[in-house]
Structure to design on (411 residues):
């Protein structure tokens, strides 16, 4: 049965189906190994015995299965068995076969990691041993996953990308395991876990891996951890490949932080304390500078996301709002009237956001950079924006006391 996993004839999706069937059988085999120890065989003997299997892939699946029983028995420290298994798994370097083998190792070990309050803490090891094991397994899995991109002819590039996306969760589950460890507190996350993950993300130089893993980091770790490590996380964004959709990654992070602040008002002082706006604003600027070929729509969308964050978290700071608009004006310099319909749609969204938040046209039009953004709208889009402004005036019964605002309403 295990020898069938040595095949190279199956697509990743079909291989996954074969792996799942094998996994179910291996769970039964694990129960058999437990029974064997009751009949006089030691786990150390079984651990040695399965290493005589002829082929390396079946041998390592058997070794992981016996290793799971070995850890459970506490006849050997969990940290020693885990270290041995993660090192031995280097023997399989075929991308798909290696990826699934390490996925199996991750699955059978996740409830046996030394953690604060777990039965394997103490003689079995510490949370640091568990973190090192998971990080090492994650690093090797990501390398194998990235290597899939370079297998086969160039004409099948899109097919390989599709297959890789189907398998991305195998790699991401390692980060989920790390986020579930009780012993991974903020200090350990800040000093060890996040820097090691980001090091792998940046160094792999792979568009699919970088986008997925950045998204995964934002999704699986707590909001307060992101808040306290904002500079480190944002520092990786300009280092990503130019083809990575950084706009979506950063927008997701800003959305999470603004939702966090909205759901728990008491965290607002923390956001102010870490100067979240300044760090986010600086990161947006660096990303735009690092990617001179970034489509205009993406650059404007980044400013929309930053403005949305600002209006939710710093609603009383009109200077911050004007600063975001000013940064957008800088990006629009030399562009004249924007013709790209997608970009103009985002500019309208940027200009509409303050109107919807403050419900006062006069307050918004006092922003120095507001009219400067409007100058880049073509005639038709300018009409659309003028209608939005007029609708705001009518909806909120705003009293226009001076003709100085009339140029913005000029059709």
């Amino acid at each position: 049965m295990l020898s069938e996993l040595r095949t190279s004839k199956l697509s990743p999706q079909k291989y996954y189906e074969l792996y799942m069937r094998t996994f179910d059988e291996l769970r039964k085999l694990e129960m058999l190994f437990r029974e064997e120890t009751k009949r006089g065989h030691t786990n150390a003997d079984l651990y040695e015995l399965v290493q005589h299997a002829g082929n390396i892939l079946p041998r390592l699946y058997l070794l992981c299965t016996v290793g799971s029983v070995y850890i459970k028995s506490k006849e050997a420290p969990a940290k020693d068995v885990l270290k041995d298994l993660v090192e031995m798994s280097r023997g399989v370097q075929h991308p798909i076969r290696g990826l699934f083998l390490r996925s199996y190792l991750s699955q059978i070990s996740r409830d046996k990691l030394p953690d604060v309050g777990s039965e394997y803490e103490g003689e079995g090891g510490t949370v640091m041993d568990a973190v090192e094991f998971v990080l090492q397994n994650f690093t090797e899995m990501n390398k194998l996953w990235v290597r899939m991109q370079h297998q086969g002819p160039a004409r099948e590039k899109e097919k390989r990308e599709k297959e890789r996306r189907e398998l991305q969760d195998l790699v991401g589950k390692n980060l989920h395991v790390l986020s579930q460890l009780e012993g991974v507190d903020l200090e350990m996350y800040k000093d060890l876990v996040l820097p090691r993950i980001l090091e792998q993300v940046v160094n792999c130089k792979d568009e699919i891996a970088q986008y997925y893993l950045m998204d995964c980091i934002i999704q699986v770790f707590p909001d307060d951890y992101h808040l306290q490590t904002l500079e480190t996380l944002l520092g990786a964004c300009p280092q990503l490949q130019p083809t990575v959709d950084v706009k979506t990654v950063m927008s997701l992070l800003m959305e999470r932080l603004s939702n966090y602040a909205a759901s728990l008002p008491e965290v607002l002082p923390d956001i102010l304390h870490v100067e979240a706006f300044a760090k986010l604003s600086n990161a947006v600027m660096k990303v735009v500078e690092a990617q001179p070929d970034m489509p205009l729509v993406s650059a404007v969308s980044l400013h929309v996301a930053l403005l949305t964050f600002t209006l939710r978290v710093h609603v009383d700071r009109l200077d911050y709002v004007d600063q975001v608009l000013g940064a957008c004006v800088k990006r629009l310099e030399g562009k004249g009237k924007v013709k790209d319909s997608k970009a103009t749609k985002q500019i309208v969204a940027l200009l509409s956001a303050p109107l919807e938040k403050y419900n006062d046209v006069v307050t918004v039009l006092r922003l120095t950079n507001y009219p400067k953004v409007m100058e880049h709208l073509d005639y038709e889009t300018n009409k659309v924006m003028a209608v939005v402004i007029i609708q705001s005036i009518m909806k909120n019964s705003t009293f226009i006391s001076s003709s100085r605002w009339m140029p913005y309403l000029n059709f």
